[in-house]
Design brief:
Blueprint (H helix, E strand, L loop, with lengths): L1 E2 L5 H13 L19 E2 L6 H17 L6 E7 L4 H14 L16 E6 L10 H10 L30 H7 L3 E9 L3 H4 L27 H6 L9 E5 L27 H6 L5 E4 L2 H6 L7 E5 L21 H12 L6 E7 L1 H7 L3 H21 L5 E7 L2 E2 L1 E3 L33 E6 L31 E4 L5 E2 L3 E6 L9 E3 L2 H10 L8
Parallel strand pairs: 3-9, 3-10, 4-17, 5-6, 5-9, 6-8, 7-8, 13-14
Antiparallel strand pairs: 1-2, 4-16, 10-16, 11-15, 12-13
Cofactor: Mg(2+); Zn(2+)
GO molecular function: alkaline phosphatase activity; metal ion binding
Protein name: Alkaline phosphatase
């Protein structure tokens, strides 16, 4: 990695210079600009074509508008949070609170800057979370199913990783002396959180037992990469689900003795974490979480489930208990704020995606609502003049909002007409729901030699019940991602760079340039 001396105060000067070019642009008032000296870096992927194109696009905005320096960066990723998901979650959240859903506003929708993000990967029109998250934290698009590597890497091929690795924003932050954190409701080794630290030609290699195919044995599994992450002093907080990838097949799970870990190499990575120093602690439940003083120097590995954390709507069913995403966000900000140099934090609402994959709209919307509450907590806890907050999604899903339901109709309900307040039936004489999916396991299957399948009659079914699955059109074992653009909401220093229709990898350059961690592109 090459370093270029670029004190962050020079970014403040650029903001002032930008006033002459755009006197009404946001972020040009230097009266509250914090003075932070930071050495900008040129990441090893700077020669990549995707990286260069995005760097130049963001630099052009900086030259036109200027940019305020950001001491801290928080990236919220709603996994699978499509624009229809945001709309439906808005209505759901309002109705859940006894308010008018249609006019309700999510906290993320109140942020002052907004753009659309193009989510395709190097090789897929409709991408996965590994490639899209990699784009956001490295500034370069890559192949689907891969983490932290460039487009020339081949799937399941360890040898092809050499010369194709990247520097993530989190690695640059650690090298610059900032604090770093990572919280998610998915597994810690799952695609989005793993993008912050892992270099892997397969997102599936979460533990050593998963290292299959190609020359997999030559690679480190993702859980091991987290524990052995060489950057700075490592993550201050890393809290999510997924402890199975950190414990061995001979270890009974702490929550259920009938379960065990997944590792076959005999390495208890949780013990390796706590052996690093007296400050390194490991927690597995709500009681352990509540016992931590996050205003201390504790370096916390929290793994609250063998796999993904519970859906918020099901959390009360967990006998051991686990913190909410709001709890995790507050704790992470409290811990990271102890570093006077600043911090970089990712917060992932990982189970929005899983709700959609299971055509469970209520779970997807409820998880979106919970992440939105985490956004509100972050806004409350941080200084708007110091902290860049970006809220976005990695990709879309196939859920749609349709029919002609009346104003105030339950978003999870069956369509009731806005004309005569009567239930609306489809051409087959049966009711239908406002929310449905283009693909999923609830689709009617046409079997050769049999009559056309018959759509389920929902007349006597409560479609608002938490285990109801929305109808789908094309039968799939799991509902698929969507390829439509997703939203980016932003506030704080650097947020003025978020506008128009952006390539997804430009998000890295917005965060990197605003924080002073990433140097300007060179000729």
């Amino acid at each position: 990695m090459r370093r270029t001396a670029l004190p962050l105060v020079s970014i403040a000067a650029l903001a002032i210079a930008g006033c002459s070019a755009s006197s009404d642009s946001a972020g040009t008032d230097s009266t509250s600009t914090p003075t932070i000296t930071r050495e900008a870096a040129t990441p090893i992927q700077s020669g990549d074509s995707y990286y260069q194109s995005a760097a130049e696009a963001v630099d052009a905005r900086i030259q036109q508008r200027g940019v305020k320096p950001a001491k801290n960066v928080i990236l919220f990723v709603g996994d699978g949070m499509s624009i229809p998901t945001i709309t439906a979650a808005r209505i759901y959240a309002g109705q859940k609170r006894g308010l008018d859903g249609e006019s309700y506003r999510l906290t993320m929708e109140t942020l002052p800057f907004m753009a659309l993000s193009k989510t395709y990967s190097h090789d897929f029109q409709v991408a996965d979370s590994a490639s899209t998250a990699t784009a956001m934290v490295t500034g370069a698009k890559t192949n689907s199913r891969m983490l932290g590597v460039l487009q020339d890497t081949r799937f399941n091929n360890c040898a092809s990783v050499e010369g194709n690795t990247t520097d993530t924003l989190f690695e640059l932050a650690e090298r610059a002396g900032l604090a770093t954190g990572l919280v998610s409701t998915a597994r810690l080794t799952h695609a989005t959180p793993a993008s912050t630290f892992a270099k892997s030609p397969s997102r599936d290699w979460e533990n050593d037992a998963d290292l299959k195919g190609g020359d997999a044995s030559a690679c480190k599994d993702i859980a091991r990469q987290l524990i052995e992450w060489p950057e700075g002093d490592g993550f201050e907080v890393a809290m999510a689900g997924g402890r199975g990838s950190f414990t061995t097949v001979d270890q009974a799970d702490v929550e259920n003795a009938d379960w065990s870990g997944n590792r076959e190499d005999g390495r208890d990575l949780t013990a390796e974490w706590t052996a690093k120093s007296d400050d390194h602690v490991y927690i597995t439940d709500k009681a352990g979480f509540d016992a931590i003083d996050f205003a201390s120097d504790a370096k916390v590995l929290g793994l609250f489930e063998p796999s993904h954390m519970k859906f918020a709507i099901d959390r009360a069913d967990d006998p051991a208990g686990e913190p909410s995403l709001v709890d995790l966000t507050k704790a992470a900000i409290t811990r990271l704020s102890r570093n006077d140099e600043g911090f970089v934090l990712m917060v992932e609402g990982g189970r929005i995606d899983h709700g959609h994959h299971g055509v469970s709209a209520i779970r997807a919307l409820d998880e979106t609502d919970e992440m939105d509450q985490a956004v509100a907590a972050a806004l409350e806890m941080t200084n708007a003049d110091e902290t860049l907050i970006i809220v976005t999604a990695d990709h879309s899903h196939t859920m749609t909002i349709s029919g002609y339901p009346k104003r105030g109709n339950p978003i999870l309900g069956k369509v009731v007409s806005g004309l005569d307040n009567a239930p609306m039936d489809a051409q087959d004489g049966k009711p239908y729901t406002t929310l449905s999916y283009a693909s999923g396991m609830t689709a009617c299957r046409l079997v050769s030699g049999e009559q056309d399948c018959v759509r389920e009659d929902l007349s006597d079914i409560d479609t608002t019940e938490k285990n109801f699955q929305q109808p789908s059109l094309v039968f799939m074992a799991s509902e698929t991602h969507g390829g439509d653009d997703v939203a980016i909401f932003a506030t704080g220093p650097g947020s003025e760079l978020v506008s128009g229709v952006m390539e997804q990898n430009e998000i890295f350059h917005v965060m990197g340039r605003a924080s002073g961690l990433v140097s300007a592109p060179t000729e």
